[in-house]
Amino acid sequence: DLQICQHRAPTCCTKKMEESYQAAVRRERAQSIQALNFELKYMIVGHITAFQEAFESLLRFAENRTSSLFETAYRPMAKEAAEPVKELFTDISLYILGAETTVEGAVLRFFDSLFPLVYSRLINPGITDLSEDYTECLRLTRQDINPFGHYSKNMVTELSKSLWASRMLSQALSLGIEVINSTEHAALSKECSRALVRMQYCPHCQGLTLIRPCVGYCLNVMRGCLASVAELDAQWREFISTLEYLTNEMAASQELETALAGIWSSINEAILHAQLNGPQLSTTVDKVCGQPKQQEGNLSSASIVPVKEVTGAQTFVMAHTSLSSRRREFINYMKRSRTFYASIAERLCDGDLVMRDSSTCWNGEDVV
């Protein structure tokens, strides 16, 4: 009653043994593919982690730099500015990780929150009544009167351009893991598991437990079983090319590092611009939002202080070097995996599975 290992000679197999063999080949094949995938997956996961660590390091450096700007140059508003600064960098981090947010939205939200502080602490430091309604009016007015000039738009442009490639690379790496995982759990068809039993275990039914499949026979069976996985070859090659393009985009001019490191400078320029145009802004704001209560006595607006470069270059250089070297190592490895799915049958037939150094092997029907 054998279904797979039918043979003219006497046999030591039963139908139940054939079923056990089918379960065994499915388990073995899954383990073999997992073992092949492990190195590739380990490399991608490792790079995702390293990339995120280096990026977070750059982000922390840029955030600390920006916080230092307020603490040294704009002390009257430093405490209240801490939350908008934190939100800005959180939004940037989420954008990189693929969240449904935009760089423009994050930057403009920051400047919306910043304007009431700049107006009430630097331009008109005598304001005592900063009610919720008045603060909201200032936030909305920011969008119309553009107190920060072209600096806010420039910051959007620079960050959008540099963060885009990082966001795409992060998403592409996650996609790579998904693809690899899907191949690990690809179900073997009934025909395939029968062919694998015939190749690996039918010789056992004749007592030939040491004989192994012929190389050509193994390749034919594996290619038939893994046809759907091998179809990923063209897309995988394209995926590697895309990774190469994205890493080159990121490395081209150190844009990511430069843009993040320059956030404090853009914010400083924007605040200086608003201070220089203080009188005109006050006139417009009074018309739109009304005149708030002022303290007695004529308080002059905060003097404009030129800000020196905030220190911390060493941290920045280390984070940048780490990011650059990781990118190079990773893309060199990934380029070597370009033929991964095209050669998966050859890899599975390599090693102990087939008979390489002997003229005697199993061809599916008999020993040849």
From TrEMBL:
It holds the Pfam family Glypican. It is a lipid-anchor; GPI-anchor. This is GPC5 protein. InterPro entries: Glypican, Glypican_CS. Keywords: Cell membrane, Glycoprotein, GPI-anchor, Heparan sulfate, Lipoprotein, Membrane, Proteoglycan, Signal. One of its GO terms (biological process) is regulation of protein localization to membrane. GO terms for cellular component: cell surface; extracellular region; plasma membrane; side of membrane. It comes from the Eukaryota. It is found in: Cell membrane. The lineage of its organism: Eukaryota, Metazoa, Chordata, Craniata, Vertebrata. Cell surface proteoglycan. Belongs to the glypican family.
